[in-house]
Amino acid sequence: MTGMLSLIMNANNLFDFGVCAYNKIADKLIECDSQNRIPPEAESVICVVFPTNADAVFNDPNEVFRLRRVASQMLELTCIALRKAFSEYLFEWFLDDSPVPDVMTASLCGLGAVGDSGLLLTPQYGSFCFIGSIVTDLIIPETGDEITGCVHCKKCIERCPAAALSEQGGFDKEKCVKYVSSSECKNANSFLLRQGAAVKGCNICREVCPYNQKIGRANGHPFIKAATNPGSIYTSDGGYKPMGGLGQEKFRKLPDDF
Ligand code: SF4
Ligand code: SF4
Fold this sequence. Notes:
By secondary structure, this protein is α+β, with helices and mostly antiparallel strands. The chain folds into 2 domains: 2-149 and 214-234, no CATH class; 155-207, no CATH class. It is built from 9 helices and 8 strands. The chain has a 4-stranded antiparallel beta sheet, with helices on both faces. Strands 4-5 form a two-stranded antiparallel ribbon. The chain is globular, with a radius of gyration of 18 Å. It starts with a helix and ends in a 6-residue tail after the last helix. 42% of the residues are buried. Bound molecules: iron/sulfur cluster (SF4) (2 copies). One iron/sulfur cluster binds at residues 115-117, 150-156, 208-211.
């Protein structure tokens, strides 16, 4: 079953994913309207990391919003395929307005470490990424424990001009947004991705993090290529071309009893 899951995820251009038990996050859900979409007997959470360390994003930070729309399409197509493959089970995806505490969940899935900045530090992309998730009532083997990463240098906390980060690991989104919306902030052109939301931020907490110093560009990553290739089935307006030839096409060719 894990092989089938990987096949479906990969066919839909989702390669950086992991799984954790739903009960590990059940009492940490974020209050939002989407909470009622969580399957009633949820058992597992599949977390997916989407890289943003690409030239397209560094050249135009607004590109992040387009990438998020494409990621939504990929998650939607993946859920369609998963529902077909495991027809007795429910699969619901979340990205924006997500009840899933995504940084914590991704770390439980073994995808990265929670930094003192409150951001997910992944080995491949540092904190240049965002996180989507699929919640299901199918029991799926877990993929890992939290990995280490943050060296607790406190640079992010000390350098945050809004005092929005605390040593206890808290991130005060209001303080962050208030600062970057003020005339004091001279660099509000970049985006900070955490807790399922794209926040316009000064980004200092990412720039000073030693974890991000050694991260290269992910221009050739299948997600970036699929998101930026004009011939892709994913469109920039939030739709996609069904039966276009990527994930769905590959999936339809699978034998029914695979
Ligand atoms: S984006 Fe800037 S203001 Fe917001 S938490 Fe990071 S360093 Fe602080
Ligand atoms: S700047 Fe230092 S303390 Fe902050 S997340 Fe990065 S490694 Fe951790």
